[in-house]
């Protein structure tokens, strides 16, 4: 991957992995996303912050085809993917760890992981080794019924399951929800490792401090609009963010 | 009741119950993926019976067949039962239920559609093939194959029991060990997440109907081997098999098997002890009793679907 090779494809470097432009999504008459513009570059980790109902999950669901935008575009590798059914999007290298983990409760850990590789003829043993390397706890419990796992273990399983599909872009919806601080830290350490191994992350989080420590950049959503964006450390230092999402008492205005 | 009679009745019940089990699988699989009580499944069973009889009426010569010929005829009957059952189930899903799913219709609409489809199908068959029973052509001499504890098992009984067991083992394998099976189970547990994993829900639902239809169709043919087929023959076995699926825990494949066998055996003993007029009373009393104490059925479990 030297200079000349890049020169042959001058536009390539400029194309973000994921690009949302003018995205407007409705639930019936209610406009949940009022024109979102957002990009995620290859190899980046990007955080989406905001209060409940700001449109964070809606944004992720629109990217993974669970919701259809009324206006605007979703592009992956520069190709339009809005309107494509979610079961087909997996082939485009998209992984989605849904809110609330939603592991298949009556399947074993191993069966859940194999479900993540459903798009392949059979699961890749190297991917399984990788997931078990990241989450040794899952390897120990591979025969256990997923519904009997703890919340933290279920979150690990949900992430591992998504990784089994070899995603280039991994969407994560509130991976810290309802988990003890120690477990949250473990999970974010692993996400950092996943990101360093080359998987791009787009992360929705209420836990702004953990999210911004992991992410390169962040966007702040409020009632369906991007109200702020920038490098993670800038956001982390911003007094409004500190007041709104990190529970600090700061004089604003 | 002597020991001898006991075995006779048990064999009778097991034969009947294995048929109920095979039909019940069709109800329970569809319920699993769609939470739909597919009352038209009894008509899939009926059509399978007609498929077998009509194919055999065309193929079987007047002379009594034996040996390899008999095996070939049974195979033809099963094949046509399966193909017709599978085809009707396939189109039932495509024509009657898929448009409702597309529009997000409420559950009650599905139920009424199922009942309507059932009426439509059996009246159509009655119109096309007449409302009088059609006799099953003789495919073999129905002699005794084995005697266990002094009870005889006939060719027909062995045929039904044997093919039912093969089908039950096969469907258990498909559901638990194959890719289609993991798709079926994933859709049953969380369709939205299943599609995030790359499962094409429409395809899985369609194949689930076909799987249940193939088995229901063969069961219809097997049921026909005991005497004849007629356009309303699906109703009682269908309702009983549906009860069997509920008894075992609807949505649970092994539960449907257990429920079917239980109701078959209970029915046989009820008839033996109290007479034919009580035939369905015993089985449904058992259903009511079990559900009073285990509302989710014998093997059923209520696992809350997370939001």
Automatic annotation (TrEMBL), chain A:
Entry keywords, A to Z: Amino-acid transport, ATP-binding, Nucleotide-binding, Transport
Domain ABC transporter per the UniProt entry, residue ranges: 18-248
UniProt-recorded Gene Ontology molecular function terms: ATP binding
InterPro entries associated with the record: AAA+_ATPase (IPR003593), ABC_branched_ATPase_LivF/BraG (IPR030660), ABC_transporter-like_ATP-bd (IPR003439), ABC_transporter-like_CS (IPR017871), BCAA_Transport_ATP-bd_LivF (IPR052156), P-loop_NTPase (IPR027417)
Entry annotated with the keyword Transport: yes
Pfam families per record: ABC_tran
SUPFAM superfamilies in the record: P-loop containing nucleoside triphosphate hydrolases
SMART domains per record: AAA
CDD domains according to UniProt: ABC_TM1139_LivF_branched
Protein family: Belongs to the ABC transporter superfamily.
Protein name: ABC transporter ATP-binding protein
Organism the protein comes from: Streptomyces spiramenti
Automatic annotation (TrEMBL), chain B:
CDD domains tied to this protein: TM_PBP1_LivH_like
Matching Pfam families: BPD_transp_2
UniProt family annotation: Belongs to the binding-protein-dependent transport system permease family. LivHM subfamily.
TM ranges: 6-32, 44-62, 68-92, 104-125, 145-175, 204-223, 229-248, 255-271, 277-293
Alphabetized UniProt keyword annotations: Amino-acid transport, Cell inner membrane, Cell membrane, Membrane, Transmembrane, Transmembrane helix, Transport
Membrane topology category: Multi-pass membrane protein
Protein name: Branched-chain amino acid ABC transporter permease
Domain of life: Bacteria
Localization (cell): Cell membrane
């Amino acid at each position: 991957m030297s200079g000349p090779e890049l020169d042959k494809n001058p536009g390539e470097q400029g194309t973000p992995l994921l690009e949302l432009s003018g995205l407007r999504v409705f639930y019936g008459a209610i406009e949940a996303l009022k024109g979102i513009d957002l990009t995620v570059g290859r190899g980046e980790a990007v955080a989406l912050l905001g209060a409940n109902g700001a449109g964070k999950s809606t944004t992720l669901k629109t990217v993974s085809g669970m919701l259809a935008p009324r206006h605007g575009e979703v592009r992956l590798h520069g190709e339009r993917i809005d309107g494509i059914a979610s079961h087909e999007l997996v082939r485009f290298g998209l992984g989605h760890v849904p809110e609330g983990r939603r592991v298949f409760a009556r399947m074993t850990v191993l069966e859940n992981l194999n479900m993540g590789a459903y798009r392949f003829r059979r699961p890749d043993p190297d991917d399984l080794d990788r997931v078990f390397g990241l989450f040794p706890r899952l390897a120990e419990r591979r025969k256990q019924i997923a519904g009997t796992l703890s919340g933290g273990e279920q979150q690990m399983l949900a992430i591992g399951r998504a990784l089994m599909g070899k995603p280039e872009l991994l969407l994560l919806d509130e991976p810290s929800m309802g988990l003890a601080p120690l477990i949250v830290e473990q999970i974010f350490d692993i996400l950092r490792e996943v990101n360093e191994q080359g998987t791009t992350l787009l992360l929705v989080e209420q836990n702004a401090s953990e999210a911004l420590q992991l992410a390169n950049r962040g966007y702040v959503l409020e009632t369906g609009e991007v109200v702020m964006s920038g490098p993670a450390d800038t956001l982390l230092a911003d007094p409004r963010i500190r007041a709104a999402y990190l529970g600090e008492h700061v004089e604003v205005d | 009741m002597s020991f001898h009679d006991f075995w006779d009745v048990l064999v009778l019940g097991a034969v009947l119950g294995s048929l109920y089990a095979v039909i019940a699988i069709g109800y329970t699989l569809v319920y699993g993926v769609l939470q739909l009580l597919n009352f038209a499944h009894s008509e899939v069973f009926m059509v399978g019976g007609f498929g077998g009889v009509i194919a055999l009426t065309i193929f079987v010569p007047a002379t009594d067949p034996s040996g390899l010929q008999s095996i070939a005829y049974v195979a033809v009957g099963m094949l046509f039962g399966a193909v017709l059952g599978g085809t009707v189930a396939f189109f039932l899903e495509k024509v009657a239920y898929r448009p409702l799913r597309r529009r997000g219709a409420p559950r009650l609409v599905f139920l009424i559609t199922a009942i309507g489809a059932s009426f439509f199908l059996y009246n159509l068959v009655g119109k096309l093939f007449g409302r009088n029973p059609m006799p099953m052509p003789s495919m073999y001499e129905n002699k005794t194959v084995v005697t266990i504890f002094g009870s005889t098992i006939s060719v027909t009984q062995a045929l039904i029991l044997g093919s039912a067991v093969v089908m039950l083992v096969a469907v258990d394998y498909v559901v638990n060990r194959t890719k289609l099976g993991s798709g079926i189970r994933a859709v049953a547990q969380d369709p939205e997440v299943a599609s995030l994993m790359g499962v094409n829900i429409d395809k899985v639902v369609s194949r689930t109907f076909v799987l249940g239809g193939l088995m229901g169709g063969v069961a219809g043919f097997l049921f026909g081997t005991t005497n004849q087929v007629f356009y309303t023959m699906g109703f009682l076995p269908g309702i009983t098999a549906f009860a069997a699926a509920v008894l075992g825990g609807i949505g649970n494949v092994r539960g449907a098997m257990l429920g079917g066998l239980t109701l078959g055996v209970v029915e046989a003993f009820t008839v033996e002890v109290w007479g034919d007029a009580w035939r369905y009373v015993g089985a449904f009393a058992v259903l009511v009793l079990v559900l009073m104490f285990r509302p989710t059925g014998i093997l059923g479990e209520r696992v809350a679907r997370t939001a």
